[in-house]
Design a protein that fits this description.
This protein is mostly helical. The chain is built from 6 helices and no strands. It has one domain.
């Protein structure tokens, strides 16, 4: 049942993003940033925890999950470092994923010989 819930919740998130792309004049970059900010907001007020328990990776893999990860990192860093945690917590929590994306991007660029449009 967990796989089914992950599938349909993740699908609804993707459907929401696709509707924003198709029906509004928002650019994809603004929609992506909006999803991350929504994840931060939902994680910050505690709504993401019950959703994560219900849908698992269906909500943590999309950009909402990245925003929630940043919000949780800030919460933990504030508890450990005080106000400095506001600036350091989000990036510390997401550092592994960000580093992986950079490394994979460099590898892809070396293997695929990208060209300017």
């Amino acid at each position: 049942m967990t796989i089914f819930n992950a599938f349909w919740v993740g699908g609804l998130i993707c459907l929401f993003a696709q509707l924003l792309i198709s029906k509004t004049k928002l650019t994809p970059a603004r929609i992506l940033v909006g999803l991350v900010v929504l994840g931060v907001a939902l994680g910050g007020i505690g709504i993401m925890e019950p959703i994560k328990k219900f849908a698992g990776s269906g909500v943590t893999v999309p950009l909402l999950g990245f925003g929630d990860l940043m919000a949780q990192g800030v919460k933990e860093a504030i508890g450990q470092n005080g106000a400095l945690g506001i600036l350091t917590g989000g990036l510390t929590a997401g550092a592994a994923g960000i580093a992986l994306v950079i490394v994979l991007g460099v590898i892809a660029a070396l293997l695929c010989k990208p060209k300017d449009k």
